[in-house]
TrEMBL record:
Originating organism: Spirosoma foliorum
Superkingdom assignment: Bacteria
Coiled-coil residue spans: 368-432
Location(s), subcellular: Cell outer membrane
GO annotation, cellular component aspect: cell outer membrane; efflux pump complex
The keyword Metal-binding appears for this protein: no
Similarity-based family: Belongs to the outer membrane factor (OMF) (TC 1.B.17) family.
Protein name as it appears in the record: TolC family protein
PANTHER family: OUTER MEMBRANE PROTEIN TOLC
InterPro entries: OMP_efflux (IPR003423), TolC-like (IPR051906)
């Protein structure tokens, strides 16, 4: 069979598999493009890092939301005093060993602080939403890299197959020329030319195998798999059918800027920077804080006076005259004693409560409000400029993608026609060469032209597939 016929049959066989196996992959012994993308997303550390950054941002938002609630704290102090000290219960000086204990609860709530907590929560919520789009951006990057590596492997496989066909045709031509030389039909130098062409084709075959190994290694690295892993890839369906979709670059950009995650993330960060300006301005407002406290205490030195039922005679300072004789006045008084107050009774008796509201009015704070407001305004302008750069880069990327897609499609169509014409030219040259009407140089030139055009057609085919899928990616936001 002629080389072009064999090559076209190979290219048209979309179900052909590259016979290798994947013992390390549990899902299947074959991988489609979609499976490769899923595997790359699961294995790439950059995706896991983006997800962790997203979780950190979400946790920060939740922390700020909870910080708006009042704070409740409890405390307990235990003391043991030796030597000369002040009794905290009576405030008298004593040399006794005293054990003390205080317990209490405190509640603090910031009622107003220039909307600082509110604006902080809004700013962090916007940043957290942007981090979600950062994860999507990282996934899109990995997806496009996987697509490129996948198509490079398919291209290299087709080039190896085409090179095998070229070697087999060249080998058959050498054998045919040897027979013609032996029969005296053609001069010996035609055999040398045929062997030279065979050597060139064999060298090209070795090069295509090297390129295939390099392409496979690139795909393994994108999938984050060991270089010793063997892959079995299934070909794309319908890659020979041209796309019939209007490729208006501006229309695609108008739609893409509403769905592409990098643009949405940049817009959210611009809004977060605007909240930063509100935060800086809020420093000039008063702040109101409400505090409530409850506490009680215990002291081992605490005593209370107790009167007993027994009475004792006590001499007073008064006197009475009886028959001219003065006698001191004596009375009966109950006995007074000191009794220790138990722990829980002291805690109940010594309770104290307080409710306070404090207002802080900033008057002069080193012009911090002015400088922070200026910095926040600059940060906002920087975020707006960065968002504009993201949109500009997206527009330029879409312009380039559409231009490359159109060029790839035109190049493929031109090469397709060129292969058809060169195949007819080669068929005529082969017939004339076999009839002895054409020298080996012209025959080899016709074969080389066809081989080169066939290889270019294979490369152009996958280049067109890549460019069309990139344009579709920008058009719908996914492959």
């Amino acid at each position: 069979m002629k080389p072009i016929v064999i090559i076209l049959l190979i290219l048209g066989f979309s179900g052909k598999l590259w016979a290798q196996s994947i013992p390390s992959l549990p899902s299947s012994s074959t991988l489609t493009l979609e499976q490769c993308i899923v595997l790359a997303l699961e294995n790439q550390p950059s995706i896991r890092q983006s997800v962790l950054q997203q979780q950190l941002a979400d946790n920060t938002v939740e922390q700020t939301r909870k910080s708006q609630l009042p704070t409740l704290s409890g405390y307990s102090n235990q003391g043991l005093n030796f030597g000369r000290n002040v009794d905290p219960y009576t405030n008298s000086v004593t040399n006794a060993q005293i054990t003390t204990n205080t317990v209490g609860l405190g509640v603090s709530w910031t009622a107003f602080n220039g909307f600082q907590l509110k604006n902080t929560l809004l700013q962090q919520s916007l940043t957290a939403q942007a981090s979600h789009f950062d994860v999507a951006t990282a996934k899109n990057t990995i997806t496009l890299n996987t697509l490129l590596a996948y198509l490079q492997v398919l291209t290299a496989q087709d080039l190896v197959t085409a090179s095998e066909v070229q070697v087999s045709v060249a080998q058959a031509q050498v054998e045919r020329t040897e027979k013609l030389v032996k029969s005296g039909t053609t001069p010996p130098f035609n055999l040398y030319d045929a062997k030279s062409q065979l050597a060139n084709d064999q060298m090209q075959y070795v090069q295509t195998q090297t390129n295939l190994k390099a392409a496979m290694l690139t795909l393994l690295q994108v999938l984050n798999l060991p270089s010793t892993t063997t892959l079995q890839l299934i070909r794309l369906e319908g890659t020979m059918i041209p796309q019939k979709v209007t490729t208006d670059a501006y229309q695609i950009f108008t739609q893409a800027r509403t769905v592409m995650p990098e643009v949405l993330a940049a817009d959210l960060r611009t809004k977060a920077a605007q909240k930063g300006l509100d935060l800086a301005r809020g420093l000039a407002y008063p702040s109101i804080t409400v505090n409530a406290n409850w506490g009680t205490s215990y002291s081992s030195a605490a005593r209370r006076s107790m009167y007993s039922t027994d009475a004792v005679e006590q001499t007073t300072t008064g006197f009475v005259d009886v028959a001219g004789q003065s006698y001191p006045v004596k009375v009966l008084e109950p006995t007074l004693s000191a009794e220790r107050i138990n722990y829980f009774q002291q805690l109940d008796n010594n309770q104290y409560k307080s409710l306070t509201m404090s207002i802080r009015i900033p008057i002069l704070n080193g012009f911090q409000v002015r400088y922070r407001t200026t910095n926040a305004r600059l940060q906002q302008q920087l975020a707006e400029s960065q968002a504009e750069s993201v949109r500009r880069n997206l527009r330029q990327a879409i312009d380039q993608a559409v231009n490359q897609q159109q060029n790839a499609n035109e190049r493929y169509q031109a090469l397709e026609q060129q292969v058809i014409v060169l195949a007819q030219s080669y068929k005529a040259a082969e017939a004339r060469y076999n009839a002895g009407l054409l020298n080996a140089v012209d025959y080899n030139l016709a074969k080389s032209n066809l081989d080169r055009a066939s290889i270019n057609l294979i490369q152009a085919r996958y280049e067109r597939v890549l460019r069309e899928k990139v344009v579709d990616f920008y058009r719908v936001g996914t492959l």
